[in-house]
Task: structure prediction
Amino acid sequence: MVILKGKGIGESVSFGTLLINKKNFDNIPKYFHESFDLEKSRLEKALDSAIKENADMYKKTLEISGEKEAEIFEVHGMMIKDKDYRLSILNIIQNEKYNCEYAVYKASKKFHEMFLNLDDEYMRSRAADVKDICLNILKYLTDEIDGKKEEPKIDSKVIVFSDDLMPSEVSNADKNLISGYILSGGSECSHASILARLSNIPMVLGIGEHIKPEYDGMDVAIDSGEGKVYISPDTDTVKMLKRKEKQYVKKHESLNSLKGKENITLDGYKINIYANINNDFQIDEVLNSDAGGIGLFRSEFLYLNRDTYPTEEEQFETYKKIAEKMGGNKVIIRTLDIGSDKSADYFEFPEEINPAMGYRGVRVCLDRPEILITQLRAIYRASNYGNISIMFPMIISETEVKTLKAMAAKVREDLKKENIPFSEDVEIGIMVETPAAALISDILASEVDFFSIGTNDLTQYTLAIDRQNSKVNQFFDSHHKSILRMIKLIVDNAHKHGIWAGICGEMSSDESLTEVFLAMGVDELSMPSSSILKIRKKVLETDVGKIKNKIFKKFFK
Ligand code: PEP
Ligand code: MG
Result:
């Protein structure tokens, strides 16, 4: 028996025969063409066919599985039709004189790498989609590569091993035949993973190159909760995994049964559990998770991967869509937190030696107010369609907050003059994510309606440990007493001034800290949708009165 460890999607166990389905770009024809026009027309035809196939997949998935799953093919459609992508292929055909297949491969490789190098996990996972659409286009150009090769035959339940997975493969998968996936690469936020999660097909990602060709056809088991793959499991392991399977089913049923329940402790403390999102695609996941609202919309993602600033109208449409979909539930839009690890060329940022401490967040917006004013106009206009709040990132001073509030007031005044409707009830809050803001939180509390504690940056700046640097990852300790003490200080100062305080950094979904946050009186926790029910369970099981003293002794005495 061989045991391999990767990252699991979902919590379940499955058994099957291993089917190695390696996809690669090894056989792509590469030659210099003789006619640009001929290659161009081949490209147009292949693109048209791929667009049509994709539209059919969208329709089929919409009918069978619903809007959420179908959205993936909407994204693919947009990618295939993308002008820059098409232009990039044509440039290779025209300037480098390569044939159409090779130009599609080369341009896709460039886009694939570009996505892979992005810091945001969601955007990084779009790299798999580029590979997916590339294979689809190539399918129409050549018989040589995977697209038109015969699909591997499946006659009993199999667990498929592949480098990466296309959403269309998961969507088309017959669950009676395929009981799981193992990927050498992959990402948790990829569309394929989202689909696997929604379809309850267990998956283990990031297994690397450890699956050997001789494993093909062997018995295999996956424990996606542990992220483990068992090649040729022995009898005792099979028994253990069967027990585990039953436990997962029970746990899943009991978590789903918590939907619709209040987040209330045994002794009556209530807490709001909200979701974090980076874009509007994630709303269905939020609704499905039974989150009470959106506690952090990282709006800078609207500004990334494009060549120009998003217009007021574009932003308005996105904010409106989110607000409407969330009904009357809270949607906290964090204003542009660009800079540091998140950047786009058109901002023309200067080179910086230490960007995490540099030109970022509200510093950019205060320096280039027109960017923030456009965003604030869009947010206020959208506030007419739901329950929107505004949150400013990277605050360090009272003056910053006052200036930002004055800008918001000016935007409201202008909209009034222009007879453009907006809600008068938009709350204004700040992220407390610098030690400076934490230490003056008593002063800042009298300026705003709420605090949301950004524990990712707060940990980075308090411990002086770069959150991007894997070399010091082992020292990045969010449980450090200094962080917990700061959180308590911020929450106490918020409450003294009659405002609420939440946490939207990664710590919010750390089950081992839920009791601590409840004991501190944290009012809201905002986290990835997938963690909502797990944390609700923890809240429902907690008796704050019983644990409070023990916790305070541990961290604060
Ligand atoms: C944080 O810093 O904790 C936070 C939520 O913001 P981001 O991770 O986007 O910097
Ligand atoms: Mg932050």
Observations:
- The radius of gyration is 25 Å.
- Residues 144-152 have pLDDT under 50 and may be disordered.
- Residues 515 and 522 are 10 Å apart (CA to CA).
- The first helix runs from residue 36 to 64.
